[in-house]
Each structure stands twice: as C-alpha cells, then as structure tokens.
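ok here's Vomeronasal type-2 receptor 26-like, seq below lol
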Amino acid sequence: MMYAIEEINASPALLPNITLGYSIYDSCDIIPRGIEGVLWMVSGTDEVVLNYRCYAQAPLAAVIGDSASSVSIPMTNILGIYNYPQISYFSSAMSLANRHNFPTFFRTIPNDMIQSLGLAQLVKHFGWSWVGVLADEDDYGQGLSTIFKQEAQKLGICIEFLEKVPILYSESHTHRIVEVIKTSTAKVVVVFSWETYLYPIMMEIDKQNINEKIWIASEAWSTSSALSKNQVFTMLTGSVGFAIHRGEIPGFKKYLLGLHPLKSPNDIYLRIFWEEAFKCRWKNQDILPETENSTLSCTGKEELGKLENTFLDVSNLRMTYNTYNAVYAVAYALQNLYNCQPDKGLSLILHYMKNVHFRTWAGEEIYFDENGDPPALYDIVNWKPTTSGDIQYIKVGSYNSSAPPGKELVLIDSAILWPGEKKQVPLSVCSESCLPGWRKATRQGQPICCFDCIPCSEGEISNSTECLPCPDDQWPNERRDICPLGIVLAVLSIVISVVPKSILGLFLWYRHTPIVKANNRQLSYVLLCALTLCPLCSLIFIGKPSSASCILRQTMFAIIFALSVSCVLAKTIMVIIAFKASKPGSNLHRWVGSRLPNTIACLGTLIQAGICALWLGYAPPFPQNNMNSQVGKIILECNEGSSLAFWCMMGYMGILAIVSFVIAFLARKLPNSFNEAKFITFSMLVFVIVWLSFIPSYLSTRGKYTVAVEIFAILSSSAGLLGCIFFPKCYVILLKPERNTRDFLMGKGSSTNKKK
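and the structure came out like this:
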C-alpha cells in the first residue's frame, strides 16, 4: 500500500498537485480492534468522538482493508453510516455482496460464490462425478460448500460425503474425518478450508499413509507454504486448486531492497521486521523491548539482498497485488472526482468509486459491478514436486467470469501432473458408464451416480442411460447403440439419386458438344432420368408395409429398371448399326436415327409393364404378419402374392441385361468413335453380377433383411450403370475438354498425333 501511494504521488499523470497520505492501524484480525481502528480513522484522533472528524487537515478518502471478512463486516457497517468507501483485498464472503446491507463496500478479490461455481466446473471438466467435500465449520467453509453442492447437482456430480473441519482442534473429530476419507470410494476430495484448520487433518492423513486421493483446493490453501514446504505432505502432490490471481508490480523488488529503518525512523513495523530478519536488536531500549531471538546489536549495515524469506519474494504476489490495485482504484476515483466536480470535495467519492474503471500496466481491467465485486479472475495451480522434495504450485490454467459463457475455464490439461507423477486424468466415479446395449438402473437409497447396468431388450438401443426402441423400419446394430439400417439405406438412396440428376444438368449445359451428341443424346437424357428414379424407388421398401406400398414397390422397381436396361440395350444396338452403316454399300442407313432406339426402349419397358399388370390382376402383393420366421416375433412384411410372377419379372429383366451384355461384349473392339460399347459392357457385367448374387441372398434371408438385400441390389446396380457409362464422359467434359471434339471422337486426332 505504501509503495502504491508513493508511486501515485510521484506520477505527473495521476492526481497531479494532490498528495495522498495514509494512516495504518493493525486490527490483528480481531473484530473489536477492527472497530476501534475504524472509529479512530473516522474521527481522526485517538480519543474517539462520534460523528465528528477532529483532524481537518487531511480528509479521509477511503479505507483499505480488512483481510478477514469477519472484521470487514462490522467495519463497513460503521463506514457506511458516513459514506466512506471501504476496499478490501481479501474479504471474499458472499454476504458482503449484499448492497442493501453494505452499500459502501468494495473489494479487489472475487466473491467466494464465483469460486464455488468455478470449482464445480473444474470437477466436471475432468469427468469426475463422485467426490467428497471437506469444509470449515464457519461461514467461509459452509457458504462455499453449499454453493458448490448446488452447482454440482446441476452438473450431474454426486457428493459421497460432506464433512465439517473443526475450527477448534478435536482429536476425535479429526480421526473420524480421516476414517471417512480413508474408507470412501471417491478419489477426489474438494476442500474449502484455511490451512490452519486443515493442517491437523493432513497430518493424520500423512500418518495413515493415504496417498491415492486427489485434492482440489480452494483459494484459502491452494498456495499454502505450510502445507507445501519441508517435504511433509508429499501425498498432496498432484493437487489442483483455485488461487488468487497472481500479478506483477513493476519496481516493487527494488523498492523493498531500498527499505531501511534509518531512512524511515518513524516506521515501527520496519524496525520490528529488521530485528526478526537479522536476529539482532536495536540499541534504543525505549523503542522496542528485547526479543527472545535477539543476540546481536543491529548496526544498520545488514543487507536485505542476502535474506531468503517471503518478504523479498515478488514472484508470487497475490493478496499483495490486490492491495496494490485497491489503492489505485481509490486514486482513479479521486482523479475522476476532481476532473468533473473539483468544488465538491470528497462528498461524492462514493459515486466515483462505483464507476471507476481503469487498466493496470499489464492491461488487466479493474472495475466494480453493482455489488462492489471485481471481475472474478482466478489462477488454476497444480502442485508439483521440486528437486529439493518440496512442492511448488505451477499455473496450469485460469478461470475468468467475464469470459463468454462456456469459455470461463481455460486449462492446459497436458501440463497437469497427477498423483504418482501420472499424466492421464484419474477416474472418480461411483459406477462406470454402461456399455452399449446396457442401461442404468439406479440403486435404491443411493445417489443417481451409483447404478447397476442392465441389458436392453431385443430391438432396443441404449445411450448408456436408458433403452430406446428402434423405429419400425430400423433395427439395432451389434453394439446396440444406433438403429442404422433404415436411415442408412434411405440416406444412401437419396445421395445416389442426386448424382444422375447432376450429370443430367451437366449434359444439358454441354448439349452441343460432340461427346454429348454422340450415340443419341435424347436417349442419354431418358437413361439419366431413369437412373435418378431407380434409387428413389427403394424408399418405398422402407417403412411399415401397407397395401399401397406392397403393390408399388415391386412394380415401380420393375418398370423403372426395365426402362434403364432397355435404354442401355438400345444404345448398344445403335453402336453396331452406326458402325455397319458407315461402310460403303450398307443398307442400314435407314435405321440410323432416333426412331429405332426409342422403339426398343419403349417396347422393352412395355413388356415389363405388361408382366406387372398381369401380376397385379392375378395375385397382387399384400401386407401380412409373418409369425413363423422368428420365434417370439411377428414380422410385418409384404407377401409377393405370386412367386411365379415375381420371378418372371426378375427373369425378364435378367434377359434384357444379358442380351445387352452379349451385344456390348461383341462390339467392344469397334473403332474409337464407337467405344461406348466398352463402357456398356462393364456396366452390364456389374449389373448381372449384382443380380445373380441377389438370388441366393434373397432366398436365404428372412424379414427385414430380405428387404435390405433387395435395396442393396437396387442401389448397387444403379450405381454400376451410372458409373460405368457416364463417369468417363463427365471426365472428358470437365477435365479433358481437348478430347471433346469431333475429330478426336472420329479417331482423327489420334492418327494426326501419330503422324506428327
């Protein structure tokens, strides 16, 4: 505080021509002394005169302190009467955020409630759902543990035990707490306690060699030197906790090294410190009594730089940094007051304290919300062993309440060292998650985190919590975690149908190019339309059978596929006729054109339509309940009505495919201008193989798998026709446009290249 005031007084930018002074009163963390100090500061004299300010030379602007919330509360009750702002650097009690009761209280340490919420999120982040809690039996411990418990329940975290840490040491109580911890199944223990009260419990835990627990620390002990030094509590290695944000104060180390009792003879604290640090005694007996450790006379030549104690350690400024910011908050409020209303004196200082907003030299924002709280910023520290055997706390993350929702917690998981110097996050659950196909069954009288796993019934899947029935057109996979059959086939059907539609658009765009015009482009358009409908007709096979779906699915499939294969047959025949007609003296010129292929395509389709009409007139398909295929199940399926009609339909389509294959195979060695026969050969080969494989698969399956086999055959054969016939043309159109010329298609391009 003194350094911050001297720094402000030396600044030409902040409060120019105004000098800040200070008075210091030691409350000793005792409530009566805290009240006495406040009255002394308000009245300005040792003899307290209520409602009077007797020292008029320097008006009181604000009070910095106290550290303990129990002392700050009665202090702010008094200061609030006179509208004096109070800024604490360590009082974090949640009750102090009540603006109705404490309208003049501010603080540079976050509200404890934020810490409780953050620690619950920390536990959730590591996937722990089963924890124990230790909390002091005072307002600090009970307040934090209550908020933590409420937030933990919202996040699905269960608390196995919640024990109160005694403020007054009790051996029996301590032994009972340690026994609860020892026998608990929770691997994680969250502790809201001060190191003074926690120390006896840790001593007993160390004595009983309990090393397998993970300790989550509140800010009250997360940076405790008493628990981390002297190689005492090695079982705390791997602990993780929230710590007050650590900051840096430029020039502070130099300032500390420059302190000397002879330079500040009125600073009694510095003289006491000097005697304790150097184990010496000043000769002036009237100022200080002799201390037990004083063995030498203090000369003033002692060097602070040679000391090794926490006084000179500026690498871990936490509460100190809060004090530094508290002084600057008052200074900036005064600056705003004098800039806006210099004639008002300090009567409006409270208003400007509420609205103060500034940045530190490191760019951190300092301001107070409507409750007088600052933005909550915590460091997350991990206790790691040093080479000397002590424990050091290393920052591995942060918690910032002003960050966007869901991004408050930032952790470097890879930097955390867990007990046993392990890098993998330990597990702390009451019951491990159920495997796929199993559901949770809560144990009676126990928290929801404790459960047994029970297998799901046939036809159901699980999300590790409950069993869910699959839709009528779907069935669980082997892991029983998804119902893939119907949805996968439906999505696949739609995706495959989009491809020929896209190719049709491409052909229409390039309709005047030679490769599209070759071999009857109108027939190619019809074939692409048919191949668009082929995958879509498989959608009729999916779902609960009905009279309409049973009639439509086989007839639609038969007619659309007959149209597709008839178009392929027409294109194959036209390849041969075109080649024969190109020879001198051929009589096939009159067959060249669109009339013959259109006739072949129509005739092939009409024959299949006739077969289907006879089928529907004689014995149409109908829905039925199959109770014989599987014991204990009734399968809703379509009865084909007449097996003879079904196989006649399939046989006719097979004849068309085989004829197309044979003709295309014979024409495969025609010149380059007629090389579409090669692609038709491959397409028909794929088509025939798929449907020959379909026959034994169809006959050997039952129920929904029969439908799945037929859908797979429809999709596979459609994709085969599309890929073998049209993909090579798309390749030329998009990637090899130099081949999309009449000369190249007629074979002149290749011969010219040979001559060159």
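fwiw The two ends are 93 Å apart (CA to CA). kinda neat tbh
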